[in-house]
Known about the structure:
The protein is mainly alpha-helical and 203 residues long. It has two domains: 2-128, 2-enoyl-CoA Hydratase, Chain A, domain 1, CATH 3.90.226.10; 138-202, Lyase 2-enoyl-coa Hydratase, Chain  A, domain 2. Helix content is 57%, strand content 10%. The protein has helices at 2-8, 13-31, 48-54, 82-86, 91-100, 106-111, 124-136, 140-153, 158-174, 176-186, 197-202; strands at 38-41, 44-46, 58-62, 66-68, 103-105, 117-119. The strands form two sheets. A three-stranded parallel β-sheet has the order 1-3-6, sandwiched between helices. Helix 8 runs antiparallel to helix 9 (158-174). The radius of gyration is 20 Å and the shape is globular. The relative contact order is 0.10.
Amino acid sequence: xxxxxxxxxxxxxxxxxxxxxxxxxxxxxxxxxxxxxxxxxxxxxxxxxxxxxxxxxxxxxxxxxxxxxxxxxxxxxxxxxxxxxxxxxxxxxxxxxxxxxxxxxxxxxxxxxxxxxxxxxxxxxxxxxxxxxxxxxxxxxxxxxxxxxxxxxxxxxxxxxxxxxxxxxxxxxxxxxxxxxxxxxxxxxxxxxxxxxxxxxxx
Length: 203
């Protein structure tokens, strides 16, 4: 935002800290969103725009999309978005892209794990809708639990992660949603997941 950038030139150090903390809180809130977050990238997504892609669970990029950690071009660093970006891409790619500030295309974004699908611009909405339909066909509480499990198990020692996995699976298997999914599979029918939502939440 050019207006914000112009106003930030006169910020004191303390004002800059508060501003960065507000921005970090926004990224953290998006990263911790309990439901799936799908990014649709078309055009230029520089700096914070690339950071927004990093907090999405699924990123669909148009083939003409352009990404970049361009902060160093302005004498700045991608500090606020760094924790989220480093959870998506490896350190080698971060070293190259953070230090050069070079722009890169959607193909490279997919190669390093920042994007998941690269499609022609005219197909981007159709691809996003396909991802949405795929997710909506799943058990909604299972999707939420799967997302929470990724965050919880990410840095756990193997023995603790195994314990968490066992507890999580047992809870899901005995949930109304899990029971409905298993029965539907055995009976060769489509599960009625949404009918079990209130039962799981009341339980």
